TrEMBL record:
Chain spans, region Disordered: 574-644
Organism: Desulfamplus magnetovallimortis
The protein's name in its UniProt record: Cation-efflux family protein
Superkingdom field: Bacteria
Length: 661
C-alpha cells in the first residue's frame, strides 16, 4: 500500500516522476479522450440498467393511477347516492369498490362476489381504512427504498474496496518508477471493463439467441396437434444415433406461463436442455407451447377449465400415437397447473404419473414472495394493479410487470447498480481467464431480458390465490375447476406416482412452498442443489453431478428422467409377465385401438369441444404438414365451460382472507 509519509524518502526521483506522470496522463490528449469515452460508457451503461429497472415501475405507476382513479369515481358515486338517495351509476367504476358495478372484461357469465363478502369489503374500505392503507403503503415503499439504497451502497463499497488497493499500488509504482501495475495499465483495465459490460456483453447476449431455446420455426421438432390456445410439439433427440422409442411411455411437459417455455430448451447444442434430456434417452417427449397471446383472443380469455380440456386433448393425441398413458410433467407454474388438472379427475383416462419441478404448491409458505405480499396493504394486493388492456379490449396480466415483482422482492440484490457491477465482474472474470463469456451465462441473461409474456387473467388468478390463501388443514387447494374442490389426497386415492423436485437454494419457489403436499400425502422427493432454473440449465447436462437420468446425492435420489425410465421399465415387466390375451379378448385400457382414445365419458361441457375431432382420436395424428391434426380442438368460439374459474370471485375470496389477518 502507498505510504505518503515515506514516499519522498524512498523515491529520490519523485519530482521527476510526478512531472512525467503529469505529461503522460494529465496532459496526454489520447488518455484524456479515453477517460471521456470511459465516463460516457459508464453513464450510458448505468442509464440502460436503470431504464430496464424503472420502466416497469412507470408502467406500474400508470396502472396504479388508473385503478385508484376508478375507485375514487366509484367512491364518489356511492357518496352521492347516499346523499341523494338515487342509485349510483356504476358504469364508470371498475369493480374495485364493492358498490361499483362490474366493468371491463368478464371471464364468465356472472363473476360477482356474494353479498356477505361485499358487505365486509364495504366496511373495510371506509375512508379511515383507506387512509390507513395509504400510510402502510408509504411505510412499505420507504422500506423498499431503504433496501434499494442499502444494496446499491453495498455494491459500490465492494467495487471501491476491490479497486482502491490496486489503484494506490499502481500510483506508487508509477511515482516511484517501480515494476508492476502502473496507473496507465490500471486505467486502461477499467476502460476495458466498462466497455465489456456496455458493448461486449449485449452483443454476446444477442448472438446466443440462435442457440437458445427450441426454435420451432426450424421444423426440427414436429407439430403434432394444436388447439385455439396451444401447440403440441414432439421434442426430437439431439444426441447422434438416438431414436425415439415410440412404444415407450410418453411424457408431456407443461412449461411455466411467466418464465416461458424456452428455458426448458435452454442450450440443446450444449446438452443443456431439460426437454431434450428426456428425448435423448429415447423417451417420446412432448411439450405444450402457448400461442402468442398478443394475437390470440382465445388464449387471452382462457380459463382453467379450457387449460384442462386442451391438456386432456393433447394427452389423447399422445395416447393414440404411443399406446400408453401419459406422464404429466409441470415446471414451476406449469407444475401447479398440472396438479390441479389431475386433481380434477378429468385426466384419469389419459394420465397415470406426475412429475413437478420447483412448483409453488402453497405460496403462503413463501419466505420471499409470500411475505412480500403479506406486507403489502390488502387494498393494494390486487390483480387489477397488474392488469393491462389490449387493443381489442381484452384484459391480461402484464408479464413484464409480473417478472418485475420478483425483482422488487429482492431489490437489494436486483437494483440497477448492483446488476451493473455484477455483470461487469462477470465479463472481467472471463477476460482474465482468457476465455469468452460462458454460453450458460449468456443464455441466462438472454432469458432474463427477453422471455416475458402476458398471461390470461384466470391463470394469474390461480397463482394469486395460491400465494394468498393457504391450503386447508385437510389438503384442499384454494382454487376449483368445474366447480370441484381440489385436494392433494386425491393423488394417493388415484394411486398416481408423483416425483416432486425442488431446489435447495431456490429463492423464488422456496423449499417450504414446493413441499406443501408432503403434509398430506406421501410423495417421492428429489432435492437439487442451486436455485430455481438449475434443473433446466445446470443439471440437464448428462455429465453433471446431478444428471437427470441418474440417481445421485446421499439419498440416492432419482432424477425426473430416471423416474420416467423406471416407470416405463415397470410397464414393460408387467407386459412380459402378463399372458397375452386371445385375439377376441379386450386389450388393456392403455392399448385399446379405436376405443382407446375415446373418453369413457363425454366431456363434461357440452360446448367445450364441439367438433368430433376434438374429443375423438381414434386415428393417430396425421404426419403430413408438420404432423398437423385435422383441425384439432379448434372451434369458432373460445371453449365454453359449465363453471369457469371466477377470477373476480377468487380475488374477493383472497381479499376476505387478507382482511381477516
Amino acid at each position: 500500500m502507498l505510504d505518503p509519509n515515506n514516499l519522498c524518502k524512498t523515491t529520490p526521483f519523485f519530482d521527476d516522476n510526478l512531472n512525467k506522470m503529469r505529461s503522460d496522463f494529465l496532459l496526454n490528449p489520447g488518455f484524456m479522450l479515453a477517460q471521456i469515452t470511459a465516463a460516457n460508457n459508464l453513464f450510458s451503461g448505468i442509464m440502460k440498467y436503470n431504464s430496464d429497472f424503472f420502466t416497469p415501475l412507470m408502467t406500474a405507476t400508470s396502472y396504479f393511477n388508473s385503478v385508484e382513479q376508478s375507485r375514487l369515481l366509484a367512491d364518489t358515486a356511492k357518496l352521492v347516492s347516499n346523499i341523494t338517495g338515487q342509485p349510483e351509476d356504476g358504469k364508470s367504476g371498475f369493480s374495485f369498490f364493492p358498490w361499483a358495478l362490474q366493468g371491463g372484461q368478464d371471464t364468465s357469465d356472472s363473476i360477482k362476489a356474494d353479498d356477505s363478502i361485499k358487505k365486509e369489503e364495504s366496511e373495510k374500505e371506509s375512508p379511515f381504512e383507506v387512509c390507513k392503507a395509504y400510510l402502510k403503503l408509504l411505510e412499505f415503499n420507504i422500506e423498499l427504498f431503504n433496501r434499494y439504497n442499502s444494496g446499491t451502497m453495498q455494491a459500490i463499497g465492494d467495487v471501491t474496496k476491490k479497486d482502491l488497493e490496486g489503484y494506490f499500488t499502481a500510483l506508487q509504482n508509477t511515482l516511484c518508477n517501480k515494476e508492476g501495475d502502473t496507473l496507465e495499465k490500471f486505467f486502461l483495465r477499467q476502460f476495458d471493463r466498462i466497455k465489456g459490460v456496455v458493448d461486449t456483453l449485449p452483443e454476446a447476449i444477442q448472438d446466443i439467441e440462435s442457440e437458445y431455446g427450441f426454435h420451432f420455426e426450424r421444423k426440427i421438432n414436429p407439430l403434432i396437434a394444436e388447439t385455439d390456445r396451444f401447440f403440441l410439439y414432439q421434442i426430437m433427440p439431439t444426441t447422434p444415433g438416438v431414436n425415439v422409442d415410440e412404444g415407450a411411455k410418453p411424457l408431456l411437459i407443461i412449461p411455466p406461463f411467466v418464465l416461458g417455455s424456452n428455458i426448458l430448451g435452454f442450450l440443446p447444442g450444449e446438452n443443456r436442455s431439460y426437454a431434450h434430456s428426456f428425448a435423448n434417452q429415447g423417451i417420446p417427449t412432448y411439450i405444450r407451447i402457448m400461442k402468442d397471446i398478443a394475437i390470440t383472443p382465445a388464449f387471452q380469455l382462457m380459463t382453467m377449465e379450457e387449460d384442462l380440456l386442451d391438456t386432456r386433448f393433447f394427452c389423447e393425441k399422445i395416447m393414440a400415437r404411443n399406446k400408453k398413458k401419459v406422464t404429466l410433467n409441470g415446471y414451476c407454474q406449469g407444475g401447479y397447473s398440472a396438479v390441479c388438472n389431475i386433481l380434477s379427475g378429468e385426466l384419469d383416462s389419459v394420465v397415470d404419473a406426475l412429475i413437478t419441478c420447483v412448483a409453488p404448491m402453497d405460496g403462503t409458505r413463501s419466505k420471499g414472495l409470500g411475505e412480500f405480499l403479506e406486507k403489502l396493504p390488502s387494498r393494494f394486493n390486487d390483480l387489477d394493479f397488474g392488469t393491462k388492456t389490449l387493443p381489442n379490449g381484452n384484459k391480461v396480466a402484464d408479464g413484464n410487470l409480473m417478472g418485475w415483482v420478483y425483482k422488487i422482492k429482492s431489490i437489494e440484490h436486483e437494483a440497477p447498480m448492483v446488476a451493473f457491477f455484477r455483470d461487469m465482474f462477470m465479463v472481467e472474470g472471463a477476460r482474465e481467464k482468457g476465455k469468452p463469456i460462458s454460453k450458460t451465462a449468456l443464455a441466462l441473461n438472454y432469458w432474463l431480458r427477453n422471455e416475458r409474456t402476458d398471461i390470461p387473467l384466470a391463470i394469474t388468478g390461480m397463482s394469486f390465490a395460491a400465494y394468498n390463501i393457504p391450503v386447508t388443514e385437510d389438503g384442499t387447494l384454494p382454487v376449483t375447476i368445474f366447480g370441484k374442490s381440489l385436494n392433494f389426497k386425491t393423488i394417493n386415492e388415484k394411486k398416481i406416482p408423483w416425483l416432486l423436485c425442488y431446489g435447495e437454494q431456490d429463492d423464488l419457489v422456496e423449499k417450504e412452498t414446493a413441499l406443501a403436499p408432503t403434509d398430506y400425502i406421501d410423495v417421492e422427493l428429489t432435492p437439487f442443489p442451486k436455485g430455481h432454473v438449475a434443473i433446466a440449465t445446470s443439471w440437464s447436462h448428462p455429465e453433471s453431478a446431478c444428471a437427470l437420468h441418474t440417481r445421485f446425492g446421499k439419498g440416492n435420489y432419482r432424477g425426473p428422467v430416471k423416474f420416467q425410465m423406471d416407470l416405463n421399465d415397470e410397464i414393460e415387466k408387467k407386459s412380459i409377465s402378463t399372458p397375452k390375451p386371445l385375439a377376441s379378448s379386450k386389450t388393456s385400457e392403455a392399448v385399446k385401438t379405436s376405443e382407446a382414445v375415446k373418453t369413457s365419458e363425454p366431456a363434461k361441457t357440452s360446448e367445450a369441444v364441439k367438433t368430433s375431432e376434438a374429443v375423438k382420436t381414434s386415428e393417430p395424428a396425421k404426419t403430413s404438414e408438420a404432423v398437423k391434426t385435422s383441425e384439432p380442438a379448434k372451434t369458432s368460439e373460445p371453449v365454453k365451460t359449465s363453471a369457469p374459474v371466477k377470477v373476480k370471485s377468487v380475488k374477493a375470496m383472497v381479499q376476505k382472507k387478507i382482511g381477516q389477518k
